[in-house]
TrEMBL record:
Purpose of the protein: DNA polymerase III is a complex, multichain enzyme responsible for most of the replicative synthesis in bacteria. The epsilon subunit contain the editing function and is a proofreading 3'-5' exonuclease.
SUPFAM superfamilies in UniProt: Ribonuclease H-like (SSF53098)
GO-annotated molecular function: exonuclease activity
Name of the protein in question: DNA-directed DNA polymerase
Native source species: Pseudahrensia aquimaris
Annotated catalysed reactions: DNA(n) + a 2'-deoxyribonucleoside 5'-triphosphate = DNA(n+1) + diphosphate
Keywords: Exonuclease, Hydrolase, Nuclease
Record EC number: 2.7.7.7
Top-level taxonomic group: Bacteria
Amino acid sequence: MIQPALFEEIEEAIVFDVETTGLDPVSDRIASICMIKANIRQVAKGETIQADVFHTLINPEMALPKPAFRIHGLGDDVLSACENFSEQAGEIAKFAGDLPLIAHNIEFDLGFLTQAFIRTDIAGPIFNLPFCTMDEMAEMVGGQYAETGRISLKKCCGIMGIDFDRSTKHDARSDAMATLQLAAAISKLRMQGY
């Protein structure tokens, strides 16, 4: 993925995470999304910030496979009562705007978000500045991670000294919050020349 700007140059951004019905953005659907609009540099400097948070459950309009339920605990009983993505797409697009997007494993999250907008008749935002905390950490840590490019959010948070308890199920909100802290820690190190 081409990075049009340096990670440490990011100021205000949308940090986000999705929970899904599976691993394929074409055949599976988003079940939950959390987006946090925050100034990454201010977080990196330890300043108190006022972050805007958008978090919602989404009716995927399909039966939730058992493996997905085991990962995030969202079931058909809860999700079937929620609005579908098309009904929430306008609000999601408006919140994201044209800010850079940051996610841990951006290809996964952005793939689902892009496909979700393709399925609607609502124009989605232009995702022109995607940044990936997983890619940044793999580059910084090196070794096996640099070769595979795969390093979990929990592992990254542990390396950076960020308190992230993954004893519970995956949750878009807690994952997005952890990704925000990780992005700030990476930005701080990059600003220091690392």
